[in-house]
Amino acid sequence: MSADRLEELLWRRADGELSAEQASELDRLLGERPEGAALAAEIDRLVVALADDAPETVPPELLARLRSIPGQRRTGALLDFRRPRTTEPMTRFARRNDMNGKQKTVLGIAAFIAVAVVAVLGLYFPRPQAADVAGTIGGVEKATRHQSAQIANDDVKLEDEAAYAMLQNETIAAALEDEEFLAVISDPEAQRILADEGFLNFLSTNGMAEFLRVPMSAEVIRDGELFRQLSSPAWVRMLQSPAMMELMQNASLRQELLSPAFHQYLQNPAMASELLSPAMQAAMTSEAMAQMLQSPGFVNYLQSPGFMNYLQSPGFVNYLQSPGFVNLLQSPGFVNLLQNSGFVSYLQSPGFVSYLQSPALVRMLQSPGFVSQLQSPGFVSYLQSPAMQQAMASGMMKQAMTQQLASGAFTRR
Amino acid sequence: MADEDDRKLVVAARKGDAEAFGLLAERHAGPIFNLALRVVGERDDAMDVTQAAFVKAWTGLDRFDVERPFFSWLYRIALNEALNWKKRSSRTVRMPEAMDVVSSADTPEEALDRRRSGARVRAALGGLEPADRALITLRHLEGMGYESMAEALEISPALVKSRLFTARQRLRRLLASEVPA
Lengths: 413, 181
What we know:
The complex is a heterodimer. By secondary structure, chain A is an all-alpha fold. Chain A has helices spanning 3-15, 20-32, 36-52, 60-67, 69-76, 101-124, 160-167, 170-175, 179-185, 188-194, 197-203, 206-212, 215-221, 224-230, 233-239, 242-248, 251-257, 260-266, 269-275, 278-284, 287-292, 296-302, 307-312, 314-320, 324-330, 332-337, 341-348, 350-356, 359-365, 368-374, 377-384, 386-392, 395-407. Mean pLDDT of chain A is 56; it is low at 73-107, 110-171 and 408-413. Chain B is built from eight helices and no strands. Chain B has helices spanning 2-14, 18-40, 43-59, 70-89, 108-126, 130-141, 146-153, 157-177. Classes of the chains: A mainly alpha, B mainly alpha.
């Protein structure tokens, strides 16, 4: 008779499921096994402790959300997506004063993808503002971001004209005819996300409408797998953040999104594959990312002249696929470094941008030793020292650093 | 009878009666929210999971067999939702702080012991696999019998017993392996 049998019978007794025969067997085993009494006492204590774990009351706001679900079905019209498509011309939408559910959904999907793309760019050159992001990176514990107020209806005004104009985009209309695409978005999880009030508000930003006028956006939208990957609740929460709302209102950044270079960048198959990797997904939805998106310096950097060219270089794409890349992005040292305004300014200098495209850097970035060195405590302390911080803001230092990087000095031990 | 009341509400909700769906939500949000909380560990996440489960229930009402218990069906949806959520998030679960469960009859020493014991158990629960945690939640927090658990999990009662036993063993071993405070 195994010890497991004794434990099994003790749990059955705790459950009140012990038959008379099993009760006799238990008594016998308890008499035979010296450890039996201690085990019985341990299980009894555990049962009491589990029973003491009192249920929590339902938060009133949750109840309100649950009660509103039937209303969302009607107004959000997410379930209407599979209805036969009408033959009404899209231009008719523009004459209506209020957006219907289908329009909102189209905007939603498109916005989702558009913002995802922006966030990907943000990931590569992050710059958090708060020092306290260290320790939350990697998502071990969630911070209090959900406790901040959601975007209210009045916070964002619907950009009707831009939105309606976007809806006349032929490629988006074509996407709505695509069976595979319709199947993806009729998934209940996708519907739930797209019906979210905060998310719908987010869609009405000007940046979304502009981005969606680009033919390429519809191609991205129709990639069902991409949409599925990006439909995680963590993404939706990020999209609803005030920082993201603000970012998408940035006119210069919107222009960048509309550039041919950016389109080409998105169409790179290696890039798409990397974007869908679990590690990248985790990094993009991390707390650190939320902080980065609030940084004006980071937004400026995205708009720097050489950045788009760099994104398209084969070396950069290869680097993204290196094992240490995501680790590096999430390391506290790297995040802290990007808080330094001097360093960000250095990143934007013409010299550095040109250096980014050099074969030497590409080789270096692919070296596990270099990545490992960047993450080492010694290197991080060096970068964070007051003298280094001051030096980084100076033009001379920028020049020196460029030379050092070019010579591979940092890769030598 | 609760099941009969549920049945009437489901039938009304199917016809578009939002009020009926609201009543169903009020009746069942508690256990669903607590299940989600035990599986995902964070209140905000648990709220999202609960909402997702009710959305799925609402969108799937037409497919639901009204002759079967609504709660078991809803519970199964919520459990799947919570487990999927966990799979996606892959975060370490930090179990929520429990409410004060100390009895007024306890001496101060007993009260302290109970608090410590509760904290240890919650921490150990957080270290279990989500599926194991769900089983223990169903049995000990919700007080479900094997049959109801089998229905909610869509497995046989025999399998429930076997898996529950394994989950409890793991929990006990986790508690035994930790250094006492």
